[in-house]
Amino acid sequence: MIIVGNPKDSAADLAVAIANTWDTFQQPYERLATLDDLRRFLERVGRPEAARVARKRDLIEIRQLRARLRHVFVAQDVGEAARLLNEIAEEAAAVPHLEHIDGTWKVRFGPSEPVAAHLGATAAAGLIDIVQAHGLTRFGTCSGPPCTGVFVDATKNRSKRYCCHWCADREAQRRHRARST
Ligand SMILES: [Zn+2]
Asked: Confidence band (pLDDT; 50, 70, 90) for 144?
């Protein structure tokens, strides 16, 4: 499981990180198999307070949230993505509020607990912004099989094809080998 971007401060990067805890690059695909896995994940995405309070029930709810987020990345049209994101935001009771963190004011989406609601509220808010500004044009899935990692394409010319630089490098090497044989 590779975490890219800055999921601590970017709600969209957090959404991507959650979605990519289902990692088809190698078995086992499930990277949130245990409560310890979930706690480690929460630490890595800058949610140490959530890591401390996470319970088994959160593990199940976050896997469900993940499935819904992955669905957003492959939505057929903007209407479908909007419906999915609105549902997640509504169920999580997503409310924006300002928090003074590390000397600056940041928008955080509540509630802070339960953990799945916090992640759902934040992830939905991040993706809602992107859909509003760009429709579905920024959402993609990795072109480096067997990886099916999702990504948000922030490049100017929408040229992103891989979820991370490891997948991009692997595919570049594969193409190079194919040319030289
Ligand atoms: Zn990939």
From this structure: very high
At position 3, the amino acid (one-letter code) is: I
CA of 150 to the centre of ligand 1 (A): 8
Alpha carbons within 13 A on the beta-carbon side of 179:
6
Q: Taking the domains of the chain in order of start, what are their residue ranges?
A: 11-137
Architecture of the CATH domain 11-137: Orthogonal Bundle (1.10)
24 C-alpha to ligand 1 centroid (Å): 9
Confidence of residue 108 (pLDDT cuts 50, 70, 90): confident
CA 165 to ligand 1 center in whole angstroms: 8
CA of 73 to the centre of ligand 1 (A): 14
How many angstroms is it from 161 CA to the middle of ligand 1? 9
What's the CA gap between 140 and 49, in Å, rounded?
A: 31
Rounded Cα distance, 121 and 62, in Å: 12
- Over residues 59-73, the pLDDT tens digits come to 999 999 999 999 999
| 71 within 8 A of 15, measured Cβ to Cβ | no
Q: Which amino acid is located at 20 in the chain?
A: N
Q: How far is the CA of 90 from the centre of ligand 1 (A)?
A: 30
Report the separation in Å between the CA atom of 162 and the middle of ligand 1, taken as the mean of its atom positions. Answer: 5
pTM (whole model) above 0.90: yes
